[in-house]
Amino acid sequence: MRGGGQRGNQLGSGESNSCPQYTWEEVQKHNRTGDQWLVIERKVYDVSEWTKRHPGGHRVLEHYVGEDATDAFMAFHPDLQFVRKFMKPLLMGQLALTEPSQDHGKNAALVEDFRALRNRLEAQGLFRTKPLFYILYIGHILLLEALPLVLLWHFGNGWIITLLIAVMLATVQAQSGWLQHDLGHLSVFKNSTLDHLAHKFVIGHLKGASAHWWNFQHFQHHSKPNVLSKDPDLNTLQILVLGNVQPVEYGIKKLKHMPYNHQHNYFFLIGPPMLIPVVFSVYIFKTLWSKRDWVEFVWYLSYYTRFFLCYIPYYGLLGAVLLQSFVRFLESHWYVWVTQMNHIPMDIDYEKHEDWLSMQLNATCNVEQSAFNDWFTGHLNFQIEHHVFPTMPRHNYVYVAPLLRELCEKYGVQYQVKGLFEAMSDIIGSLKKSGELWLDAYLHK
């Protein structure tokens, strides 16, 4: 199981001081497709061609062109020594000695204190996994996967048994979703190759989804959460308007794809029940087909093959299809409420060029800690800690939270904690407010 990444020497620390030097103004000119520079630990890199091969997807890098990407780089890569091998050919030079380390007037003291906290957490071993946690976790998933077949064998396929089975299988899907999330963030094994392999098994064979699709979407979200035009989770297909800025823009432009002033009502009909069964299913299949990723396609098909082989003997083909659809319906409700309660009610705006800590805290909030909340949300009740330290094993969030909260208090960064039902109801309240802003702008501006 994985250990914390070693920071080691600063990137390019062995480079000569005579290498080319650049100002922030010069770096920020290179922010267009085919001409993209960024800065990591005061070193200037040309990532114009590397974006096409970047394992996390080209858009993650493109979101940081012309900026200091140091903290994002540290957040996403547990093995920095390995990544440095790919960065050496991209090195262009360094920032001039007269230039600040931070772009766009970011608070240098806050950034340095945040990095010191990260070093402290690494030294304390909080980026290392407790193997027993994940052994028990995958064990309870596999147990819930097997129990429905035992119930069918002993009691048959009556309505009560079928409903119980649907709840168990939906629980498997939700909990497997949280597990694949950990694996996708490389927070389980010491060797990231094992994380990738296990990720393909869990998301492919246990869930019937795609690791490639998930990575491409999710890392963009983490790199710029709640930033319009950068966070793909804000792409609501013009069905919803979110935050305080987008609704007014739509209203001024007289855009009325939906009656947005009623979105807090129709959300119950098209959000929780349809996201996974319809939207995700279509996107996953399109991604696998368009990328011709046949290995992941086999993992994807293995889930459905196993499911129908197990349940057609008891329900027939139509019954098994209906059971699968109902499981997805239940899972979708679970997923939507848990994942959106931390983000939709928070600040949603265009790029502000904030430091890593402030950006993540403005876009996320926590939900109160309890054994049930930890299990039910896959520890995403610690959404703040997860967003700030995405490669940290989730069972350590509870130890990190007080230290991170102390740092936020020192610099006046808002650290929000809500009750579970309060956080869920805030989704509806936020949608209602956004709809009202749209209607006002539509009618009066």
Features:
two-stranded parallel sheet; mainly alpha; 2 domains; 445 residues; disordered N terminus; 58% helix; 5-stranded mixed β-sheet; globular
In short:
This protein is mainly alpha-helical.
Would you identify the regions where 5 or more consecutive residues have pLDDT less than 50? 2-16
The H-and-E topology, N to C, reads as EHEEEHHHEHHHHHHHHHHEHHHEH
What fraction of residues sit in β-strands?
5-15%
Tell me the number of strands: 7
Distance between the first and last residues' Cα: 57 Å
Shape: globular
Counted by DSSP, the helix tally is 18
**Main sheet?**
5 strands, mixed
Q: For the largest beta sheet, what order do the strands appear in spatially?
A: 1-5-4-3-2
How many domains?
2
From the helix content, strand content and strand pairing, which structural class follows? mainly alpha
Relative helix content = 55-70%
Mean pLDDT: 93
Radius of gyration: 23 Å
